[in-house]
Amino acid sequence: MQIVYERCCGLDVHQKTVVGCRLLSQQKGTVEKSIRTFATTTNGLMELDHKASFIPPKPIRELRDLVRAHTHLMQERNRHMNRIHKILETANIKLSSVVTDILGKSARQMLEALIEGESDPVELAKLARGRMRPKMALLQQALQGHLEPHHRFLLKETLAHLDFLQLRVGQLEQEVAERLSPFEKSLALLMTIPGISRRSATILISELGTDMTAFPSAAHLASWVGLCPGSHMSAGKRRNGKPTKGNRYLRSVLTQIAWVLTRMSDNYLSAQFRHLRPRLGEKKAVVAVAHSVLVIVYHVLAKGEPYQDLGPDYFRKQDKEQQARRFVRQLETLGYRVE
Question: Are residues 202 and 158 both part of a single domain?
Fold first, then answer.
């Protein structure tokens, strides 16, 4: 059997005909719609000549499936950790108010002792190790609760499932690391961008690949991801500028990168956030920074060159006259006269 298209999105070739519908947004806000009917024979599919959705190469698709599975496992792991917090809070045990990591060595031993039936706060606090030892008095207060038998059962089952999830996460990380070996150069390039860790770079490559020729420009990529303003106009008026849904995995990781950048102060992207926040607000400024990160990712992968930062003082240099006018207004508000 001849393979006409290796992978199709939304085309049911088991039918006698295929109806192709294409929607193209125009600059004035209108939408051009074209519909054609094609046969599902080989000749008919060849006549389709339809620009389908972005489909990365097979190695990238396989990597994407593994990385997404890893993401889901990590989310499930976090949900089970939250369940442990909830069980302890229900029993009036405030361990999380003293312990930073509920699954650390000290906290894990305390949880296992609670499951075994130990209820004396003094004995439980003695299980503290290292930097937890000076907090024994606080631990004794936090461990004064009423743990019922069903609480112990739930803790035991949740910890067992967490151990299982941790094992699966480790296996997936090993498999992902092996499949990432051909993309080490691209990973290194992406990690030159502030705020991008190896984990973030892995998600970016698994969703986008390394070949940016699939997207004519960075603007097309931003539209596909869903990090550009939407276009909804009626009677010549713009009704809504909300972004499209796009790729939720990419939007999530890019937004996380943007939030990391808000805590930095030594690069252009963090300066962009502080420049936009007074006018747009914090959340919209984060989305704008996430868009800028995506544009940078596009050019870094397309050119194969490391990121060159414009510096944290970029906007201050650009807005000298605007700053001068603002300072004059502030001085005049205070009663000074500036000539």
Answer: no
